[in-house]
Amino acid sequence: MAVPAYIFAGFLESGKTTFIESILLDPGFTHGERTLLIMTEEGEVEIDPKTIKKSKTIVESFDDQEDITAEVLHNLIKKHKPDRVIIELNGMWELEQFVVDISPVVEVFEIVTTVNGETFEMYANNMGARMLEHISAADMIVFNRCDEIRKAQVRARNIKAMNPRASIYFESPEGVGESYDEGLPPPFDLDAPIVEIEDKDYGLFYVDAMNTPDRYEGKTVRFKGQVYRGSDLPGNAFVPGRMANVCCADDIRFIGFICKCPAAMLPLADDWVTVTAEIKIEKMKQYRGEGPVLYAKAVEKAEEPEVEVVEFN
Q1: Which of 32, 1, 191 is nearest to 109 (CA)?
Q2: Is residue 129 very low, low, confident or very high in pLDDT (cuts 50, 70, 90)?
Q3: 10, 154, 171, 295: which has the fewest Cβ within 10 Å?
Q4: Residue 94 CA from chain centroid, whole number
Q5: pLDDT at 246 > cutoff 70
């Protein structure tokens, strides 16, 4: 069985080291087991040597991404025999390629991205593509040092649209944490017999349904989308969706939901349709877990919307 690995991504001074140290001090996580900690950059904070000793952690350091190959990692695991591997990733390294490189010898159990709220706007403006990679690949995203103004800046950047499946948290400058969605009401009337999604609101619907699928369980929705049909879907399924401006003008992507329906109701690929469907929450490999699955009640041909690319505001 492969050794589980936890990757901590984010730019310099984003709080990765502090987060890792808190985990090593948590007996519920380490409970006497051995941890191999791989460090790839020197930040403003160093882990206390007492924490290293107490948590039975072995530290290995690297300067270049090319130096951490599958073979090197395999030899380190063979040498130290850890129960887990924690990797503090250099913020300038290519995260997706790194995961591919180490996957033959470890099971990447979780990717955590930390973001310094004080420098978020600067990095988003100057290194948007790399920040998008860190955010879109993460299972958990933590924005620390966030006051109310910085929370608003984060939400304005459509972070949920970049990665609807991730758990996202804010931490105030005083260290008080809260969920990204805390205090936000549903954007639609979910008590209506049919939840009508206007063309301009598709982005909001997609983010909310992917982020909080449970509140859409059993609801009937109606919206317009373009049809995707591919070999990666069940034979009785298609994906009605929209092209979306997820992060910037250079990051337009198709977003949609798996929709199951009788064969006679299946639309043609690329058609525009209005779908009326009941939502059920099911585990699908395309969602990497549970997510909203539509069960079509009606699929009707429709005109292309005036604005084809949706936003998330």
Answers
A1: 1
A2: confident
A3: 295
A4: 16
A5: no
Q: Are 292 and 214 in contact (CB under 8 A)?
A: no
**Distance (Å, whole) CA 202 – CA 195:** 12
Cα 191 from Cα 34, distance rounded (Å):
51
Q: Is 170:155 a contact under the CB 8 Å cutoff?
A: no
Give the span between the Cα atoms of 113 and 88, in whole angstroms: 10
Report the amino acid identity of residue 40: T
Residue 280: burial class (beta carbons within 10 Å; 0-12, 13-18, 19+): middle
> What pLDDT shows up at residue 187?
80
Q: Which two tokens stand for residue 14?
A: 């984003």
3-state secondary structure of 139: coil
Nearest to 288 by CA among 109, 102, 93, 97: 109
DSSP letter, residue 27? H
Place of tokens 């933590």: 142
Residue that the structure tokens 């191999």 belong to: 36
Domains contained in the chain, CATH given? 3-179 (3.40.50.300), 195-310 (2.40.50.140)
Are 292 and 215 contacting, i.e. CB atoms less than 8 angstroms apart? no
Strand partners, 272: 226
Instruction: Return the residue matching tokens 């990692």.
Output: 73
Rounded to two decimals, what is the model's pTM?
A: 0.66
Alpha carbons within 13 angstroms on the beta-carbon side of residue 123 total: 21
**What mean pLDDT, rounded, does the chain reach?**
89
Checking if the pLDDT of 182 tops 80, the result is no
**161 and 246 Cβ atoms separated by less than 8 Å:** yes
Distance, in Å, from the CA atom of 73 to the CA atom of 105, rounded to the nearest integer, reads 7
CA angle in degrees (0–180, nearest 5) for 76-82-85: 80
